[in-house]
Every structure is written in structure tokens, then in C-alpha cells.
Amino acid sequence: MTSPSILSKLVTLFRGKVTEAGTAVIDANATTIIDQEIRDARAAIDQGKRELATLMGQQTLVQREIEQLEASIQQDEKAARAALEKGAQDLAEEVAGRIARTEAALEGKRSMAADYARNIASIKGSLETSAGTIQQLEQRIQVAKAHQVTHSARANASLASGQANGRMRTAVDSLARMEQRLQQQTATQDAAEQLAREASGADLDERLKNAGITPSKQSAAAVLERLKQPSA
């Protein structure tokens, strides 16, 4: 029966192998993964810019409402002063009440505008930081890709050089074997010709001639000298 400790170690081994395999796949496709992550980050920044544009639009609307409320207050203040000048206290009080309500609404809109301004400034800063980080990553990945191309080229060149050297060694060996075969064939032909000369006696005649024993064939001058002699 398998003990719990062995099962635990087997599970740990399996997890380790899975981690190694996953890491190997990630490392082998690192540039592809980083490129996709950069694209995802750019997509997130684009979405953030759209959200920022929406906030800025809302801020613009709130600012317009603030301007309208401020204009309304100014108009009501003029109306209240005119009522007081004419002794219409009740009418002046009614206008004053409306001014108070408008000022409360104005305060709320101003608070909203301030919130929009803070959020917009924060989002702009975050987007600028993210964009700068992405730019740096793109520069670094370009350098890494250039190094990868250089490394791959060097590896391929080294492999090609090794193959070329191996082929040259094979060619040299083949040439040496061919030269040896030619030398053997030449020696065999020389031996055959030597045997042929010995069989025909040419070899013996040549050796006698070289020894000065067998006279060479008559020359033309010797024949002419013989013809000049009177016949017997």
C-alpha cells in the first residue's frame, strides 16, 4: 500500500513537471506573449481614454449648469433689490427664498464639478503613466527582438560553419581515398606492363642494350657507308 508521503511527493513531482513545462512554453514564446500583453494594455488605455472623455463631457455639462445658476442668482438678486426699493417686502422675501434654493443647488453643482476635476486629473495622470510604461516596454521588446535575431543568426551561422567543415573533411577524405585508388591502379598497370615486357623479351633486350651488349639498330649513316664498300 502506497504511503501518504510517497503520494504527496508524486503530486509535488507532477506539479513541478507541469510548472517546468509551462515555464518552458512561456519562455519559448516570450516575445509573442509580451506583444499580446502590450496590445491588451493599449486596449485598456483606449478604454480609459473613452471613460475620461465621458467624464470631461459630464464636467462640461455641470459647468454650464453652474453658469446658468449663477446667472439666475444674479437676475433674482436684481429683482429682489427692485422689490425692496418699491417696498414690496413680501415679494422680495419670496425672491430671496428662491435665491437661497438656487445657491444650494449651485453649491451641489460646484461640488460635483470639483469631483469631476479631481477624477479627471487622476485618470489623466494614470493614463500618461501607463502610456509611458508601454512605450518603455515596446522599446525594450524591440531591443530584445534584435538580440534574439542576432543570437539566432549567430547560432545558424555556427551550425552552417560546422556543417561546412564537416563536409570539407568528408571531401578531403574522399579525395585522399580517390588518390590512393589512382596510385594503386597506376602501380597495377605498371606491374602489368612490366610483366608483358618480360614475357615478350623486350625487357631483356632493353636491359642488354642499356648494358652495351646488344648493338642498336643500324643508323642511316652506317648503311650508306656499307653501300660504298665494293662488292666481293
Compute the number of helices: 5
Strand content: under 5%
| Percent helix | over 70%
**Tell me, what's the shape?**
rod-shaped
Question: Using only CA atoms, what is the Rg?
Answer: 55 Å
Mean pLDDT across the residues is 81
Helix vs. strand class = mainly alpha
Which properties best describe this structure?
single chain, 232 residues, mainly alpha, 2 domains, 5 helices, 91% helix, rod-shaped
Provide an overview of this structure.
With 232 residues, this protein is an all-alpha fold. The protein has 2 domains: 4-146; 161-190. It has 5 helices and no strands. It has helices spanning 4-28, 30-85, 89-200, 202-211, 220-228. Helix 2 (30-85) runs antiparallel to helix 3. It is rod-shaped. The chain starts with a helix and ends with a helix. The mean pLDDT is 81.
Brief characterization of the structure:
It contains 5 helices and no strands. The chain has 232 residues and is mainly α.
Blueprint of the fold:
Elements: H1 4-28, H2 30-85, H3 89-200, H4 202-211, H5 220-228
Helix pairs in contact: 2-3
